[in-house]
Amino acid sequence: MSLVMPEPDASVLARRADIVRALRSIVPGEAVIDDPDGLRPYESDGLTAYRQPPMVVVLPETTEQVSRILAWCHAEGVKIVPRGSGTSLSGGALPLADAVLVGMARFNRVLDIDYEDRLAVVQPGVTNLAVTRAVEDRGFYYAPDPSSQIACSIGGNVAENSGGVHCLKYGLTTNNVLGVEIVLMDGEVVRLGGRQLDPAGLDLLGVVVGSEGLLGIVTEVTVRILPRPEGARALLIGFPTVEGAGLCVADVIAAGIIPAGMEMMDRPAIHAAEAFVQVGYPLDVEALLIVELDGVAAECDHLIDEVAAIARANGSTTLRLSADDDERMGFWAGRKAAFPAVGRLSPDYYCMDGTIPRRRLPDVLEKMRELSDHYGLGVANVFHAGDGNLHPLIMYDANIPGQLERAEAFGNDILRQCVAVGGVLTGEHGVGVEKRDLMPEMFSETDLKQQQRLKCAFDPKLLLNPGKVFPTLHRCAELGRMHVHHGALPFPDLPRF
């Protein structure tokens, strides 16, 4: 492992048997796992390049159990790593050798569906796709749809602020969550938001969504459900150059058209996806756009004509319109299978996640080609093109010494380029451990310390998911110190608490 994680606390490891015994008194039965074979499935998440068996795994099934686990660990100074389905691609659920991994898979029930208020109340272990399955018979669905939606959990979506192919029009997780129940590190159970559209007070819900397990463990989520649009059609558009496809994306948005989804794949990704699902992707193009328009029939027809004209103006060579819903879903099946499909091209791949201004897409792709030559590693590109979210898949072989390190360096240079052109380090996968050491590329030391002060407000002992997000985690006491000038505090007349 090239990644440096916090050194395990020997005093905690020495108490392992007592910790296991205490957890079994809270969660009886087989829900506490401490044998080596039982721990192995939890040693990594979707970022499989990094592995570390946890000290112990506990699988609670009630909010009370989560509260008691966290309160006990808080009192005893034991670290906690929350885990959903383990599909995180940034190492957000990577265990620590001296931490309790709290798996939320048993929180798997849909608690309430309110069609009048268009919401569903679910436990965090419910999978993303299961929410849509629960409401589709009444013509509703849950809009955010990550490619891993068949497996990823709503709790993990909240932690990482996940997106998906339809987030361009309908928003990320943060735009579709109305409320959460969250257990803080000291065991306190707090509700943020709820069934109402706009709760009063500070937007603490917005703080929790995307907090990557640093602030608490979510035990219930209230999500927005939407009625299915009257109709939806998808265009499959091929281009002789990636640059032409990128310019088409920018021109579609500039024309005021907001598709339900707009995805791009380059030649390696196209060929891998077509071999995997065989949906009829054109194989003689360098880039492929999938553009979905939805709404009433007249609106769809009009927008299809507009997008087709823009595509032709940017040099498209093929254009295919879905004839029905089955064909439309076939178009998306290839895109959603692109990540596993690339596994046919390489023994291993490193999936990156950065976001750039749409107009800079040709520049960044050219830079990627240069980096690919420099590092001697192939790359297949899949994009949420409409919002500039890139997912380069760097191909390598972990069995060849040095290739993982080259893949990491290649990925880091891609993310540095994203920031250099005015973008950000992540669009939806989160920072986790993957981008942790790149945070200073985007944030100043003052920025990072302010973010850490927010963590300290929720987790003063820094026990929740340590080693993630922040390249250097200061103690809360250090961040709370006041500057003393010539022996005098600032504003000496103010009371100090």
Automatic annotation (TrEMBL):
Keywords, sorted A to Z: FAD, Flavoprotein, Oxidoreductase
Keyword match Flavoprotein: yes
InterPro entries the UniProt entry points to: FAD-bd_oxidored_4_C, FAD-bd_PCMH, FAD-bd_PCMH-like_sf, FAD-bd_PCMH_sub2, FAD-linked_Oxase-like_C, FAD-linked_OxidoTrans_Type4, Oxid_FAD_bind_N, Vanillyl_alc_oxidase_C-sub2
Cofactor(s) in the UniProt record: FAD
Entry coiled-coil feature ranges: none
Pfam family, one: FAD-oxidase_C
GO molecular function: FAD binding; oxidoreductase activity
The organism's place on the tree of life at top rank: Bacteria
SUPFAM superfamilies listed in its UniProt record: FAD-binding/transporter-associated domain-like (SSF56176), FAD-linked oxidases, C-terminal domain (SSF55103)
Keyword rRNA-binding applies: no
FAD-binding PCMH-type domain location: 50-228
Protein name per Swiss-Prot or TrEMBL: FAD-binding oxidoreductase
